[in-house]
Amino acid sequence: MRIAIDARELRGKPTGVGRMVRTLLDEWTTMPAAQAHEFISLAPPERSKGGTLWEQLTLPRLVRQASADVLFAPAYSGPVVSPVPVVVLIHDVSFVAHPEWFGWREGTRRRVTTRLAARAATRIITVSEFSKREIAAHLGIEASKISVCYPGVTAFAGGTDLQGSPHSCTVLFVGSIFNRRHVPELIEGFTQLARSRPEMRLEIVGDNRTTPHVDLASLVEATGIADRIQLRSYVSDDDLRKRYAEAAAFVYLSEYEGFALTPLEALASGVPVLLLDTPVAREVYGDAAIYVARPDPALIADAIRTVLFERHHRERMLHAATTVVRRYSWTTFAKQVLDLLLDAGSRGPKGSAPQGGPAPHGGSAPHTR
After folding, report:
1. Mean pLDDT across the chain, nearest whole number?
2. CA distance 204 to 54
3. CB under 8 Å, gap of 24 or more: what pairs does 364-369 form?
4. At a CB cut-off of 8 Å and minimum separation 6, what does 256 contact?
5. What confidence tens digit (pLDDT) does each residue in 82-116 have?
6. What are phi and psi of 289, to 5 degrees?
7. d(C-alpha 144, C-alpha 347), whole Å
8. Taking 60 as the threshold, does the pLDDT of residue 365 lie above it?
9. Which of 163-177, 211-225, 290-304, 329-343 bottoms out in mean pLDDT, i.e. has the lowest?
């Protein structure tokens, strides 16, 4: 089977979805079950924005020219009119559940394109049971059309042992910076504790996409300890490996996610994590994290103190992490996604079930050529 992939997220400096797509392609390259199939990456020219017009008008033409059997759209939306069945990966629906977090133009575009893509798709993939419930509720999609495939996790390096390295006490955040992730509150909570702990450092890695815009550099400067707080918009995988290796704790205070991959990377790398207490955080991380009930700087400061300086809590989390991390495998994720693509592609140009009865919903499908 010829599987076309919307590969826009691989361009430039891949984060989030782009890193996931790259990992999928790497897994399929070595997976015996994928060897009988051809994967065709489709993307606009480097200088093109590759926006909605490219997605809706140019991408279907490229799919047709490639003689593809199915299209995988891994970034929330895909062509409403496609010559082949479309499988769309919707990570979350924050732009529908919380439109106040998005600018008018961006929010409207996301709501319209994702809703139309979800209705037109042969199959929807998402990354958690929480996200499946949200998609069904907010987009009006039948739950039977939505399959949950948990992403895998990459362990970059071991976290810092505070007892053995008293001069390294770094708190780390990695991820695109949205208002819902409460980075200003992290900065304030860190500052409250770090004023009396000169060994502490804070590393924040992520592109600032806050709406309305938050001037993080000004917030850092106002702390009085700006020399111990580092803002980086992007790091390479090699640099990210170094950040995890030097971290003593990872803080991710998001109130809405489909999954949240970077805290899991931290956990797999031996770094204890502090999270906001949400249903999806409990689903993914269970007992392998410390939670705060709300993004209050005083609560954050107290929880960071616990993670960094109370050894029995660190040991408990890292012990629980062993079981939690085992649940998430990129190989399993790649196989599940491939099965769903093959199932959708076997249905023919309009995504209808092949002769002999409807294809199963959510299960594994046989591999076909």
Report:
1. 90
2. 33
3. 364/336, 364/339, 365/339, 365/340, 366/342, 367/33, 367/36, 367/37, 367/338, 367/339, 367/342, 368/1, 368/342, 369/1, 369/36, 369/37
4. 92, 94, 97, 98, 180, 278, 280
5. 999 999 999 999 999 999 999 999 999 999 999 99
6. -150, 165
7. 17
8. no
9. 163-177
CA dihedral 301, 304, 309, 314 (to 10 degrees): 150
Of the candidates 48, 118, 260, the residue with the CA atom closest to the CA atom of residue 110: 118
Encode pLDDT of 292-315 as tens digits. 999 999 999 999 999 999 999 999
Closest to 344 measured CA to CA, from 323, 364, 324, 325: 364
% helix, strand, coil for the chain, step of 5: 45, 15, 40
Q: Is the peptide bond before 354 cis (omega within 30 degrees of 0)?
A: no
Other CB atoms within a 10 A radius of the CB of residue 243 amount to 23
Collapsing DSSP states into helix, strand and coil, what is residue 170? strand
Sheet strand arrangement including 290-292:
229-232, 200-205, 169-174, 247-252, 273-276, 290-292
Q: Measure the CA–CA gap between 244 and 170, rounded to whole angstroms.
A: 10
Confidence (pLDDT) at 167: 40
> Could you give the maximum distance between any two Cα atoms of the chain, in Å?
71
- Confidence band of 234 (pLDDT split at 50, 70, 90): very high
> What would the two tokens of residue 179 be?
């208002």
pTM: 0.88
Give CA separation, 357 vs 1, 125, 243, 264, 360, in Å: 21, 22, 52, 40, 9
The closest of 91, 84, 2, 89 to 39, measured between CA atoms, is 2
d(CA 38, CA 162): 48
